[in-house]
Amino acid sequence: MTKTPLLIYLHGLNSSSRSTKAQQTIHYVHKNKLDIDLWVPDLPCHPEQARRLMSDRIRREYGMRPVYIIGSSLGGYYGTWLMQRLIYLHPDIVTRLVLINPAVRPYELFRQYLGKQTNFHTGEEWELTTEHVATLESLETFWLDNARDILLMVQEGDETLDYRKAQEKYARSHIITQKGGSHAFEHYDDMLPTIFDFLSEKPVL
User: Fold this and answer.
1) Residue ranges per domain, the chain?
2) Contact assessment for residue 161 and residue 73, using Cβ atoms and an 8 Å cutoff
3) Name one Pfam family in it (predicted).
4) What is the 3-class SS of 191-203, one letter each residue?
């Protein structure tokens, strides 16, 4: 049994573990010699396969150590579902979540993008179908049991998602809103000390 926290980084749609924010997170942990186990999976395109991958991983934890989650864009949607799943399975362990320009109700947005998709990093081509959309909708989290254990970070210049939808959904959480920026969340690396202070339950606001 270990008390070393598990940190899960979940990337967005058509991204991968090679994304800039994922790599900056990995570098920060290693550079600062943080006592954290990292898991940065390459999420499958199909939401059901992504759900199984996350479920299989947390099932191995058996509620024995804190779990931290950082979710970017679609990864934020998955991260919200995963946090609620962890709270249900292991209500006694510490679970904390950081959201970076997260997708809110992505199944509504994705109906506009059905068809051929290409992963930015791997070049993999795949088809976004109505089945994907329906599975995403089934992962919707309507209630946040531990909203104060969530840190929401959004930039008003997000050209892909409406940051106000995230502010509304996570209104009971800690929120950092920055002027300008983009969907990629510019200068994410500057926010990593704040992120890890929050994950370790230090005041950040």
Assistant:
1) 6-199
2) yes
3) UPF0227
4) HHHHHHHHHCCCC
Note down pLDDT in tens along the chain; length 205 residues.
468 999 999 999 989 999 999 999 999 999 999 999 999 999 999 999 999 999 999 887 766 789 999 999 999 999 999 999 999 988 888 999 999 999 999 999 888 889 898 888 787 888 989 999 999 999 999 999 999 999 999 999 999 999 999 999 999 999 999 999 999 999 999 999 999 999 998 766 6
For 6-199, CATH gives 3.40.50.1820
The pTM for the full model equals: 0.94
Q: Which two tokens stand for residue 44?
A: 């499958």
Identify whether the C-beta of residue 74 lies closer than 8 Å to the C-beta of residue 101: no
Determine contact, residues 58/89, Cβ cutoff 8 Å: yes
DSSP single-letter state for residue 103: -
